[in-house]
Amino acid sequence: MAGGWKDTIRKVAPALGRALEAVPYAGPALAAVSAALLGRPEGTEAEISARIANWQPADEVALRTAEQKFALDMVDRAVALERVDADNRANARGREVALHDWTTRALAMAIITLFAVQMFLLTRHAIPAENREAASQLLGILYVAVTVVLSYYFGSSAGSRTKDAVLGRVAEGKK
Fold this sequence. Notes:
The protein is about 80% helix and about 0% strand. It contains eight helices and no strands. It has helices spanning about 5-10, 15-20, 25-40, 45-55, 55-100, 105-125, 130-155, 160-170.
């Protein structure tokens, strides 16, 4: 196939081609391409380029198969990271219960109270022009803090939504 070897990869296996350009995924993507085309994951770019210069129809099948395996590996990694996050939250909650620690609850109550007070003040009083940016930043910080408090006490489905979206794209064959 004509063109640079990465162009060929992008045409045949678009997800692998994009991953080759993304910093956290470039190494695993290069290893997947190398394993598919050279039979070993530690091949060099020069070796891959030489192999693509002598392109065979079987190479396309190997790359498409490698792309599917790579996508599944990335989903497995995302699930493992979510598992670590869930364990971390469970450990923090367990510590709070075991030690009868009020620190987390006190901070949560303070954050919710500060947010409510600021919202009340914003609806009742005009903010002087010189203080608008500071008030906006404070509101943003409190908004994020309230989100964290609610996620801690009631859970978060953001990770689940992300995983569902990724799994859906993989199942549909979309990139």
